[in-house]
C-alpha cells in the first residue's frame, strides 16, 4: 500500500488540533513559558492518542511501512499545528523559515522511538525572531519528550557544508518539506542537484559503501547473529536505506519502483525490496512499542513477544520464536541478494558512462577482461571472476558450482554481475546437478581446499547455491536456536566450524589448542573430517535427536559426494557421536576410571579419537565469541590423554597405589631445602587422589602455602594465581573440613559475582580441606584480575569465618541482577549407579541463577550425601551439574525411595520452591587449627571437580 493510499484522518482531527492551539493564545502578551505549558497537554494528548491508534492499526494490518508512515504523518501534523500557531501569534517572521524533515523522517517513515530529524531553513536575510521561532518550536517538542536532531542553516550554508561532509550531503538528499517557506526548500533541492549531485555519483557511492562495510565490521560482519540489530546490522534496514540513498543520488529517482523502469531491478526484485522493507519496519515498530524506547537490538527477552505479535505459531521441531527468527534471517539474506544485484547494475551503468567520467572512475569501471587458464566459460575482470557470456549457467548448470571452484583455485573475488545472474539462475540446480559426479567432485575439492574453504562456502551460501546443491543444508539456512549458548544461525555455525578446522589444518592455531595442531598433520583422511564438520548439525530443528538424524542424512549424502563406504561410515559415526567428547569432558569426572573406560568403549580406535577431538574443538569454537577457552581445551586434552593410555594398553588400575607412592617420594625430594621433619610432615599430608591428579609443581606450591598458614596459626587461608592461557583464575582455600564447605564456598563465589569453571577439592590426612576453585577470568591484565580475585577471596573468608551471612550476601547479589524470565528449562534430575564403579552419579539440568550451586550442594548435604567430585558446566542460560556422591558410610545410593526423595528435593530447589534451604546456613565453621600430624581415619571427601 502506497503512502497516498493510507487514510490518515482516523489518527488525528487536524482542524480540532489547530483550533485548540489557537485558543491558548487569545490573550495578548501572555508569557511564553505559560504558552508552552498550555500547549503541552494539547499536543501530548494528540500524540499519545494518535500513536495508540497507530499501534492498533499495526496489530490489525501488520504493515510495518504503513505504521512508519502513519507515525511520520502524525508528527508532521503536530509540527504544522505548532508552526502555524507560532507564525500567527508569537513570531510572524517564523512563517518565512522552512521546516524540513531529513534522515529517515525525510523519507516519510518514523518508528515509535525514532529521533525527529529536522532542518530549519532560513532566508539569506534572517532575523533574531526567526531563530526565536525555531527555539520555541524545539522547546515544545523537547517538552513533549521527543529526541530532536536539528540544524538551522541558510541554503548557502547547506550547500557549502554538503561539499565536504558526506553525512550532511546524505541528510539533504532526503529533505522533505513539512511547512513554512516552500520556496526555500525548492531552492535547496535545485541547487543541491545542480552543484553537489552532478558528476559526484561515484564519490558518493564509494563513501556510502565504505560506511556500510565499516558498520558491518563493527556489528560482527555477519547477518546471522541470533540477537541482530534490526536497524544497523548486516541485512537490516540501514542496508536498504543505503541502497535507496545510492539510487536516489545516482539515478535521481524519488521512489524505488522507478528502478524497475531503469532496468536496475526486475519487478520481482523490487517487490522483494518492498516486502523486506515492510517486514523489517514491522519488527522495528513492534520492538519500539513493546519496550517503550528506541530499541534496535532484537534481544532474546523480546523475541518471543515480537513473534507472538507478528502471528507466528510453533511447528514440529521449531518453536514460534525460532520460526520468526528464521524468517527474519531469510529476509536479511534477501537484503544481501538485492545489494549484490543493485551493485552489479550500478557498475554496469557506470561502465557505460565511463567516457564522461574522470580518469579515476575510468580505471574503476572500464572493462578489462582477461582469460583464466583452464576455462573458456569464465574470465577475469580486475581481480574478479565473471562470465564469458550470459548463457554460461544455462548452457551447463554445473558451471554454477564450477564458478566457485575456479574462483577458489585462482584466488579471485566474485563479480557482482555474475552473482546477479547466478541468483536469477538458482532454479537450474536440480537433481541432475546434485547427482552430477563432476559437480560433487568440485564441491568436495572446495570444501577440503588448503586455501580458505569457509570463504567459498559462505559465498555459496550467500548466493543461495549451497542450500540448493545440498537441500538438507538449505533447511538449516537462517535457522536460529533460541538459547544464549549459540551465537549464530545453524548454517553460519557450520561454516564457522569449517573455518576453525581450516585454521587447525594450516597450523595457525597452535597457541589456542596445541594438541589438535600436533595431531592434524597425522590425520590421513582430511575429507572425512571436513565433511563431518560441515554436516554435524545439519539435522537441527527436527523432532528427533539431531545427531541421529544427521547421521542418517550423512549416510545418504556421503556416497553422492564421492566418499567410499568406509569413509561414509566414519562420517556417520562422527556425526552421531559429535557431542560425546564435549559432554564427557565437561560433565564427567575425568579421574574416575569408569568415565574413561565407557568413553573408550564408544571410541574404540585412535583414529576415531583424533578425528573426534578435532571435530569437538571446531564445534565449540564456532559456537560464538568467548565460548571456547583454555580451560575447555585442558579438559579435552585430559580426556584424550587418559583415553589414549587405555586404547594403547597403558592404563592400569594395579599401578595406582604404586604411582601414588612414587608421587609422594617425588614431593619429598622436591622439598629438599626444608627440614627433615617438615619434609615428612607435608609430603605425607595427602591421599591418593591428590597425589595422582595434581602436578608436582602445584604440590610444592600447596605445601609452602599450608606450611606458611600453619606457622602463622591460620585456621583459614587463601591463595590466588592467575592463568591467562586457560582463561582461569585459581583461588585455593585451606580450611577445616565441613560437610557444607563446598556449598558455602560456591555461595561466596556467587555472591562475589564469580563464575566457577571447575574446582579441585581434597581432604588432607589431618582433617583439613584443600580446595582450589577455578573461576572464569574477566580481565586480560593480571593486575586487574588479581584485584578481582582478592575480592572473591575476601568474600570466601568472610563467609567461612562468620563475618558475613551467606543467605544475605547471595540475596543482595540476586537483587542486583535481573531475573532471566526469557527462557524456560524444566528441572531435570538423573541418578545413575552405572557411570562409576564407586559412586552414585547425580546429574541435574536447569536454568542458571545466582546461588544455584550453593543451594544444590546444601540440599545434598542435608540429605547426608558425601560429594566426592562434581562438575559444573554452563551452556548459556542452562547449567548441567554432575555430582559423584556416596552415603556417609561410603556406599552407593541404591534404595529407590531414597533416590526419589533426592530427585524431588533437588527439583524443588532448582525451581526455587524451597526458600527455607537458603536459611539455616551455619554462620561460621572456623575451629582451632588442627595439629599437622597424620590422622589414621579416611577422609570424608576425596576430590571434586566442579
From TrEMBL:
Q: Which UniProt keywords apply?
A: Hydrolase, Magnesium, Multifunctional enzyme, Nucleotidyltransferase, Repeat, Transferase
The UniProt record lists the ACT domain at 730-811, 841-920
Q: Does the keyword RNA-binding apply?
A: no
Alphabetical list of Pfam families matching this protein: ACT_ACR9_3rd, GlnD_UR_UTase, HD, NTP_transf_2
Q: What is its EC number?
A: 2.7.7.59, 3.1.4.-
The residue ranges flagged as biased composition, category Pro residues, are 929-939
Q: Which cofactors does this gene product need? A: Mg(2+)
Q: Which CDD domains does the protein's record reference?
A: ACT_ACR-UUR-like_2, ACT_UUR-like_1, HDc, NT_GlnE_GlnD_like
Q: Which GO terms describe its molecular function?
A: [protein-PII] uridylyltransferase activity
Query: Where in this chain does the record put each HD domain?
Result: 490-606
- Family the entry assigns: Belongs to the GlnD family.
Role: Modifies, by uridylylation and deuridylylation, the PII regulatory proteins (GlnB and homologs), in response to the nitrogen status of the cell that GlnD senses through the glutamine level. Under low glutamine levels, catalyzes the conversion of the PII proteins and UTP to PII-UMP and PPi, while under higher glutamine levels, GlnD hydrolyzes PII-UMP to PII and UMP (deuridylylation). Thus, controls uridylylation state and activity of the PII proteins, and plays an important role in the regulation of nitrogen metabolism.
Q: What is known of its domains?
A: Has four distinct domains: an N-terminal nucleotidyltransferase (NT) domain responsible for UTase activity, a central HD domain that encodes UR activity, and two C-terminal ACT domains that seem to have a role in glutamine sensing.
The cross-references to PANTHER family, in alphabetical order and at most eight, read: BIFUNCTIONAL URIDYLYLTRANSFERASE/URIDYLYL-REMOVING ENZYME, BIFUNCTIONAL URIDYLYLTRANSFERASE_URIDYLYL-REMOVING ENZYME
Query: Know the name of this protein?
Result: Bifunctional uridylyltransferase/uridylyl-removing enzyme
Q: What is the lineage of its organism?
A: Bacteria, Pseudomonadati, Pseudomonadota, Alphaproteobacteria, Hyphomicrobiales
Amino acid at each position: 500500500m502506497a503512502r497516498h493510499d493510507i487514510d490518515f484522518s482516523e489518527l488525528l482531527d487536524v482542524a480540532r488540533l489547530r483550533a485548540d492551539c489557537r485558543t491558548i493564545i487569545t490573550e495578548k502578551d501572555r508569557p511564553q513559558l505559560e504558552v508552552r505549558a498550555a500547549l503541552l497537554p494539547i499536543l501530548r494528548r494528540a500524540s499519545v492518542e494518535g500513536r495508540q491508534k497507530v499501534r492498533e492499526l499495526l496489530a490489525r494490518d501488520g504493515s510495518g511501512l504503513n505504521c512508519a508512515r502513519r507515525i511520520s504523518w502524525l508528527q508532521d501534523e503536530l509540527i504544522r499545528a505548532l508552526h502555524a500557531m507560532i507564525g500567527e501569534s508569537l513570531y510572524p517572521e517564523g512563517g518565512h523559515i522552512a521546516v524540513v524533515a531529513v534522515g529517515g523522517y525525510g523519507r516519510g517513515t518514523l518508528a515509535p522511538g525514532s529521533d525527529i530529524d529536522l532542518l530549519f531553513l532560513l532566508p539569506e536575510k534572517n532575523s533574531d525572531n526567526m531563530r526565536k521561532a525555531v527555539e520555541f518550536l524545539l522547546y515544545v517538542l523537547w517538552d513533549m519528550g521527543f529526541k530532536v536532531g536539528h540544524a538551522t542553516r541558510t541554503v548557502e550554508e547547506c550547500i557549502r557544508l554538503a561539499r565536504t561532509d558526506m553525512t550532511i550531503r546524505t541528510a539533504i538528499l532526503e529533505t522533505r518539506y513539512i511547512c513554512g517557506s516552500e520556496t526555500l526548500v525548492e531552492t535547496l533541492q535545485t541547487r543541491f542537484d545542480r552543484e553537489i549531485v552532478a558528476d559526484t555519483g561515484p564519490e558518493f557511492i564509494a563513501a556510502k559503501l565504505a560506511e556500510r562495510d565499516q558498520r558491518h565490521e563493527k556489528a560482527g560482519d555477519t547477518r546471522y547473529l541470533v540477537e541482530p540489530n534490526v536497524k544497523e546490522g548486516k541485512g537490516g534496514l540501514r542496508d536498504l536505506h543505503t541502497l535507496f540513498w545510492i539510487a536516489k543520488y545516482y539515478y535521481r529517482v524519488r521512489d524505488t519502483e522507478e528502478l524497475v523502469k531503469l532496468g536496475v531491478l526486475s519487478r520481482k526484485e523490487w517487490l522483494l525490496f518492498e516486502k523486506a522493507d515492510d517486514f523489517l519496519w514491522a519488527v522495528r515498530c513492534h520492538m519500539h512499542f513493546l519496550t517503550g524506547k528506541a530499541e534496535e537490538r532484537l534481544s532474546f527477552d523480546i523475541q518471543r513477544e515480537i513473534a507472538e505479535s507478528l502471528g507466528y505459531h510453533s511447528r514440529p521441531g521449531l518453536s514460534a520464536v525460532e520460526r520468526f527468527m528464521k524468517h527474519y534471517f531469510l529476509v536479511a539474506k534477501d537484503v544481501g541478494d538485492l545489494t549484490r544485484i543493485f551493485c552489479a547494475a550500478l557498475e554496469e551503468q557506470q561502465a557505460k558512462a565511463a567516457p564522461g567520467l574522470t580518469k579515476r572512475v575510468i580505471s574503476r569501471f572500464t572493462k578489462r577482461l582477461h582469460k583464466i587458464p583452464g576455462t573458456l566459460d569464465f574470465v577475469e575482470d580486475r581481480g574478479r571472476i565473471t562470465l564469458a557470456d550470459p548463457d554460461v549457467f544455462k548452457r551447463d548448470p554445473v558451471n554454477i558450482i564450477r564458478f566457485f571452484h575456479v574462483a577458489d583455485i585462482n584466488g579471485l573475488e566474485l563479480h557482482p554481475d555474475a552473482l546477479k545472474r547466478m541468483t536469477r539462475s538458482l532454479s537450474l540446480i536440480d537433481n541432475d546437478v546434485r547427482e552430477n559426479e563432476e559437480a560433487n567432485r568440485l564441491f568436495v575439492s572446495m570444501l577440503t581446499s588448503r586455501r580458505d574453504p569457509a570463504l567459498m562456502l559462505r559465498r555459496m551460501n550467500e548466493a543461495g547455491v549451497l542450500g540448493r546443491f545440498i537441500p538438507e543444508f538449505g533447511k538449516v539456512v537462517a535457522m536460529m536456536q533460541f538459547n544464549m549458548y549459540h551465537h549464530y544461525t545453524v548454517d553460519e555455525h557450520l561454516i564457522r566450524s569449517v573455518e576453525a578446522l581450516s585454521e587447525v589444518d594450516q597450523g595457525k592455531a597452535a597457541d589456542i589448542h596445541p594438541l589438535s595442531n600436533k595431531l592434524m598433520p597425522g590425520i590421513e583422511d582430511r575429507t572425512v573430517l571436513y565433511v563431518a564438520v560441515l554436516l554435524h548439525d545439519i539435522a537441527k530443528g527436527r523432532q528427533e535427536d539431531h545427531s541421529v538424524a544427521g547421521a542418517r542424512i550423512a549416510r545418504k549424502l556421503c556416497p553422492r559426494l564421492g566418499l567410499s563406504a568406509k569413509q561414509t561410515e566414519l562420517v556417520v559415526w562422527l556425526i552421531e557421536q559429535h557431542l560425546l567428547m564435549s559432554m564427557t569432558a565437561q560433565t564427567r569426572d575425568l579421574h574416575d576410571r569408569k568415565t574413561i573406560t565407557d568413553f573408550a568403549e564408544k571410541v574404540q580406535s585412535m583414529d576415531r579419537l583424533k578425528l573426534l577431538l578435532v571435530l569437538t574443538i571446531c564445534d565449540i569454537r564456532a559456537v560464538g565469541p568467548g565460548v571456547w577457552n583454555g580451560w575447555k581445551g585442558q579438559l579435552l586434552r585430559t580426556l584424550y590423554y587418559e583415553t589414549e593410555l587405555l586404547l594403547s594398553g597403558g592404563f592400569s588400575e594395579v599401578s595406582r597405589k604404586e604411582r601414588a607412592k612414587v608421587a609422594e617420594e617425588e614431593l619429598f625430594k622436591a622439598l629438599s631445602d626444608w627440614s627433615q621433619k617438615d619434609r615428612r610432615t607435608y609430603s605425607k599430608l595427602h591421599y591418593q587422589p591428590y597425589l595422582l591428579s595434581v602436578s608436582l609443581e602445584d604440590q610444592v606450591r600447596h605445601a609452602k602455602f599450608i606450611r606458611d598458614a600453619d606457622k602463622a596459626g591460620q585456621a583459614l587461608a587463601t591463595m590466588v594465581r592467575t592463568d591467562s592461557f586457560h582463561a582461569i583464575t585459581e583461588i585455593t582455600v585451606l580450611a577445616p573440613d565441613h560437610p557444607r564447605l563446598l556449598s558455602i564456598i560456591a555461595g561466596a563465589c556467587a555472591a562475589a559475582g564469580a563464575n566457577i569453571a571447575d574446582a579441585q577439592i581434597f581432604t588432607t590426612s589431618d582433617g583439613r580441606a584443600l580446595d582450589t576453585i577455578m573461576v572464569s577470568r574477566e580481565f586480560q591484565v593480571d593486575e586487574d584480575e588479581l584485584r578481582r580475585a582478592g575480592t572473591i577471596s575476601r568474600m570466601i573468608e568472610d563467609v567461612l569465618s562468620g563475618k558475613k551471612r551467606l543467605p544475605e550476601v547471595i540475596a543482595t547479589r540476586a537483587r542486583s541482577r535481573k531475573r532471566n524470565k526469557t527462557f524456560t528449562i524444566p528441572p531435570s534430575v538423573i541418578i545413575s549407579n552405572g557411570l562409576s564403579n564407586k559412586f552414585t552419579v547425580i546429574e541435574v539440568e536447569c536454568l542458571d541463577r545466582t546461588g544455584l550451586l550453593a543451594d544444590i550442594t546444601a540440599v545434598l548435604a542435608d540429605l547426608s550425601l558425601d560429594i566426592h567430585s562434581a562438575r559444573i558446566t554452563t551452556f548459556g542460560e542452562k547449567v548441567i551439574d554432575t555430582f559423584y556422591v556416596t552415603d556417609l558410610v561410603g556406599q552407593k545410593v541404591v534404595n529407590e525411595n531414597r533416590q526419589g526423595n533426592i530427585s524431588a528435593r533437588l527439583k524443588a530447589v532448582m525451581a526455587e520452591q524451597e526458600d527455607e534451604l537458603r536459611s539455616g546456613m551455619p554462620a561460621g565453621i572456623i575451629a582451632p587449627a588442627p595439629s599437622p600430624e597424620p590422622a589414621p581415619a579416611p577422609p570424608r571427601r576425596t576430590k571434586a571437580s566442579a
